[in-house]
């Protein structure tokens, strides 16, 4: 079956479902705010440039955490591992879910979650108004990687890749 539609107010669910067919990683973005550390689970993350090293992510404007995250000067983007589902779910529901994970503050006071397959510590280079989201472009200042398998999401389901030796 093939379905073609025009993206509009009454086809938002179909649009979301179509976008969900693109497999993506699961991340948690953290920053420091005047009220304390804050985090959010996001999957709108991509690499932008290697030189200079830039990444982007896009918080929804309707999120209660949007303004604090978009106005921060620094953030850390954590690629979450398949062993960190409880942490990922906790930050999807609450920006203050730091009691669910092992973390410490960086020298810039940005919360850093331990044990992630990859972590990108950034300062914000650009904020771009983009419809119902803000595009945050971060300049990567430091990267940390560890030996852990990343979590993947597609069509609303979480999964992981099998390594060649595991098949």
Give an overview in words.
It is a single chain. Strand 2 and strand 3 form a beta hairpin. This protein has a single domain (26-149), classed as Pnp Oxidase, Chain A (Roll), CATH 2.30.110. It is mostly beta strands and 167 residues long. 14% of the residues lie in helices and 43% in strands. The strands form three sheets. Strands 3-2-6-9-10-5-4 form a seven-stranded antiparallel beta sheet. The relative contact order is 0.21. The model has no long low-confidence stretch (mean pLDDT 91). The chain is built from three helices and twelve strands, in the order H-E-E-E-E-E-H-E-H-E-E-E-E-E-E.
Summarize this structure briefly.
This protein is mostly beta strands.
- CATH topology type: Pnp Oxidase, Chain A
Structural domain tally: 1
Q: List low-pLDDT spans.
A: none
The helix count comes to 3
CATH homologous superfamily name? Electron Transport, Fmn-binding Protein, Chain A
Q: How can the largest sheet be summarized? A: 7 strands, antiparallel
User: What is the succession of H and E elements?
Assistant: HEEEEEHEHEEEEEE
The helix-and-strand class reads mainly beta
Give the CATH architecture.
Answer: Roll
Distance between the termini: 31 Å
Q: What share of the residues does DSSP label as strand, in percent?
A: 35-45%
* Residue-averaged pLDDT: 91
How many beta-strand runs?
12
CATH class: Mainly Beta
Shape: globular
- In spatial order, strands of the major sheet run 3-2-6-9-10-5-4
Kindly provide the radius of gyration, computed on alpha-carbon positions and rounded to a whole number of angstroms: 16 Å
